[in-house]
Structure formats: C-alpha cells, structure tokens
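Archive transcription. Copying these from loose printouts into the bound notebook so they stop getting lost. Printout 1 of 2:
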Amino acid sequence: MLSSLYYLVPVLGGYAATSFYLLKNPHILHKKKRLPFHCRHISHRGGAGERIENTLEAFDNAVSNHTHLLELDCQLTKDGQVVVSHDQNLLRQTGHDVNIRDVTYEELPPYKDSLEVTFLPGHMSMGRDHHMPLLEDVFQRFPEMPINVEIKEENGELIKKVSDLVKRYRRADRTIWASMSDQIMKKCQAENPDMPIMFTPRRGVILLLLYYSGLLPFVPLRESVVETYMPSIINRTYFPHNRLMRNPFLVTLQDKLFMRKGLFKHLQDRGIQVYLWVLNQDSDFQRAFDCGVTGIMTDFPSKLNDFLHRQEDKHRTPEETQHTVTGDGVEMCRY
C-alpha cells in the first residue's frame, strides 16, 4: 500500500500542477477562437421588458441603446416562412390558441397590447408594433449586428432555411446557432458549420465536470459561446417549470459550482465568450461582471446601457473627463 502511494502521490501532484498551469495558460494547447464581436450588452428577445418581444420595434430600441447582440427565436409557418417568435403556440403572445406551423404568415394574429415579462413577473411590456417579423426582415434591417438565433424545434426545413438566409446575407461569422437540444444543435452545425455555436445544457454539465476534474485545459471545445442562467436569480425573477430546479439547496449548489472567476477567465482566454441570462436588476448586473462574465442578456436594454455607462464613468481618470458649464450654470461632462 505504501509503495503504491509512493508512486501515486507524485503522479497526482504532477497532474494537478500541470492542469493548473495549463488552466492559466490555455494558449499552449489551444488556438484562441477569434469571434468578430465581443458582447457585453445583449438584448433578450430584443428587450422584452421595454417593447413587445421579438418585434422590429424592440430590436430598434435595443440598437438605439447600444446593444452588442440581438437574441431572438425562430419558428416556421405553414407556408414555409421563417418567423421570429419565441412560442410555437400563440396563446400567451396573442390570445389565440393556434400553432405557428398550422397557419400561413399572413394568417398570424397580432401580439396582445401588453405582455408580461417572463423574467420579471408582474411587469408588463407594451409597444406600437404588434407584428411578428420575418427573420429576413431582421437581417435586412440590421446587416452588421451580431444576432443569436435560437432554434426552438427539431425541424430540418427550419434549420436549412435559417442557414440559407445566413448565407444569402453573408453573416455566418456574426450569427450564433443557439438551442437547448443536443440533437438540434448537431443538425444546425451540420447544416452550416461556419456559424459559431453555444453550449447546450448537457454540454454545459460536461464543461463543469471537466473543470472540477482538472481535465478542462487538455480538452478541445467546439463551442464559441456559453449562454446560461445565473443560478441566484432562480426563485427571484426566474421560476423554472421543473420544481426540482427551484429547490433552494440545489440553487445554492449550482451557484457555488458555476459562478467561478477561474472558469470564466479560462474560457475567455480561449476565446469563448460567457453570457448570463436573463438579468434585469443592477445588483445582478454587478455580480455577473464582478465574476468575470463577457456579457449580460437582459429584457431592459436601456437599464443595462445606463449601468454600463455608470461603470465606465467610475473608471475614467480626471484627465479623461472635461467639465464645462452651460449657459444655465449647469456643469456638464464631455468625453
């Protein structure tokens, strides 16, 4: 027994030291991914807390608030049109109990006058635009804007049509494949491998296992983006349908395991961006950035924009801020 330990201890010690060194220096084994965008401000469904979700008005509002990435969802209509909508069944969004796949694009009902914000229960969003746009409408309106396209159903025709639109508008490098399903993600990547992809939940669990086993620095990763919830918002602004996920002990455990600066730093050193959703409060913004995430997905683009500006102001030196006085005697700042 002692002779076995004599060999085992140095081996484990060497493994731990090597793993730690490579965790801090991933460039030794891995070529850094080079996405053409770096996103701190991400608008969930275009900013579902300030305008009706997934409408052109919402996307316009997000862009006017300096968002770096639009997040949206896609479905396919009966006549084969790729429409931007989170739900397949339209009861929540329109009050009509119909499925998008069962109606043509022209037959789609308009959104309700107001919608409850999914990640801030009790808060209603409103807007002038109640029309569900085509994905092509969004690509045409925002040709240079990075867009995160979530595929909601395992539908080969939908995946192909999204890919065809991405190719037509030459935006593969700035359009992210997103899905919660491994099967859907495999089909998306096979259809258009030039588009960056996110970690699915199952792959996220594997990522954590690799991190805590010390294997992560040795393993290549095909994904370019981590998109996941911040566990501490569960039972405050996010209420999962699965009751087990709402268990306070499991929420705390998830938070302890996932919110690790060392993990986020390693991923970003490998060019993998980390986005947390869906955060709608300043305290959550602050915690996420303090933990070293790349970006935050929010329903309130103007609120996150204001927060980021305040953070920038805190870090400005006196030389970077020039104070002037208006004719009314009000001190203004110019940058």
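Printout 2 of 2:
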Amino acid sequence: MDTVLLLTILIVVCALAFDFINGFHDTANAIATSVSTRALKPRVAILLAATMNFAGALTFTGVAKTISKDIVDPFTLENGSLVILAALLSAIIWNLVTWYFGIPSSSSHALIGSIAGAAISAAGFGILNYTGFIKIMEALLISPVIAIVGGFIVMNILRAVLKNRNLFKANKRIRYLQILTAAIQSFTHGTNDAQKAMGIITMALIAADLQTGDDIQMWVRIAAATSMGIGTSIGGYKIIKTVGGKIMKIRPIHGAAADLNSAAIIFGATLLHLPVSTTHVISSSIMGVGSAQRVKGVKWGTAKKIVITWVITMPISALVAAVLYQLLALFS
C-alpha cells in the first residue's frame, strides 16, 4: 500500500480515537451538574449526552474548516501526514493522562497546541498562519473570562426571580429544567468539539492530495459524530466528580445557571466558527455561579489546579508533538 495512503488511514483512525476519548473526557463536563444534583441518573445523563452530541456534531461544519486551515495551511505543508499524525498522538496522550488523574483539561488546547508544535518542528515558525492562529487563541483565552462573568450575571438574575419562592420547591422544579439544560449543553458541545476531529481528517485528506477543497465530506461528519457519541456513552465519571462537586457544592439552581450560560457561549462560538474549550467554559461558568452565591463557597484550591492545567496544556502538547514528529520522521 502507498505510504501516504497508509498514513492517511492511520490518521483517520487516530482522529476518531481522539473524538472517542473527547467523548468520555469532555462530555462529562456537559452532564456533571445534572448528575451531581441528581436531576439525572448517570446512565440516563450519559445516554442523553451521547444522543445530543451526535445530533450537534452533524449540524455544523464551520469550526472544522477553521481547524483545517487557520492554524497551518494544509495545501503548503510538507510532510503533512506526519505532522498531523504527531499532533493527534500528542493530543491523545495528554487527554488520557489528564483523564486518568480526573483533571478537566482542554482537549481543544491539547489539539491546537499539538498541531502548532508538530508543524513548527517540521517547517519552522514561519509555517503558522498567524492571523488564524491568533484568532483561535483569542477565542480560547477570552471565552473563560466571558463564562465567569456570564455565570455571575445569570445566577444573580435567577436569584432575583426566585427571591420570594420557597427554595426547596424551586430547586425541585429546577431539577426538571436541568434535564433540558443538560441536553442543550450536550448539543452545543457536539457542534463545537466534534468538529475538531473533522477538521483534522480534512487536513489529512488535503495533505494526501485526496481532496482539493476544505469542504467537510459527509462520511467524515458521520464518522466523527458516531465516534464522539460512542465515547460519550462510556462516560467520564472521574471528570464528573471533579466538575460536579470539587469546584463548589452545586444545587439545581447553580447547575441550571451554569449550563445555560456555558451552552450560550459555546453555541455562540460555533456560529462564529471559533473553536473554544468546553472544559474551560463549563468550569468557568460554575466558578462564576459560585461567586455570585458566595465567593468563599468556591473551592479555589481545585479551581487553581484546573487553571494551572489550562495554562500548561498547550506548551506541553506542542513540545510532545514536536518530539513525536521528529521520531516519526526519523523512522519513516
């Protein structure tokens, strides 16, 4: 079999594996609040998330096109197949390590950092599309800030609306609302995160001269959506435990506020064709909601560990991808 074709097949397999891991790694964030407040049983929540993720992944392609061309230009990238393979392996390794330790890190940061690191290792810093790369970085950095502020505002609005209501009865009714917010959250996750694997596969097809444009083929969309759906169905209980209870003690009203806020931000980014970290957005929304309730109620020690992981994810992923590219190039 032709080497380039073999590498392309291997990339497709790894990209779908990345989406599968992303399913049980990141999607846990989308249902963490509804599970922790017992609005949904874990199995039901995971089934709901898998279904809505699949639907969301098939609906949009704008983020996939951004990933496929705005970090590096796949039409000019030499040894493109090796670059993409190294990037995927690096992102998968980081996701598995953070999942094992129950740390809600960003799959988006891992993947984007890995693509940049492998490309720089192959062709130097000049290979980066700085206009597109800076745009992506801005979205990744600004979205958590917007999520914290938004979570604070949404929580205060809900508190004002429910000011004269019986809190116990209100929380009981809000649990039903959480079923809807968990579904919306999972759908928006699919519209953004599943597209990253689609973009990677499209990059590989272009690099192998198997595709001449940046359109996302239907089989790529279906394969990525299915892979993420299956991954979601397995669930990520370690991440659910961290997001759902170790940042703050979450009541139904907190969960609903955080879900509505983060879903709006993620879907807004999807409409703008910008990849954002669902982990960052959801965790930041919970911090914002907790701050509105009581600043000391947020477990800032856990929040600090999450933030540190956010900061180190991209440079470590880039470094690992750069080393992997050199190893792959050596053996190839």
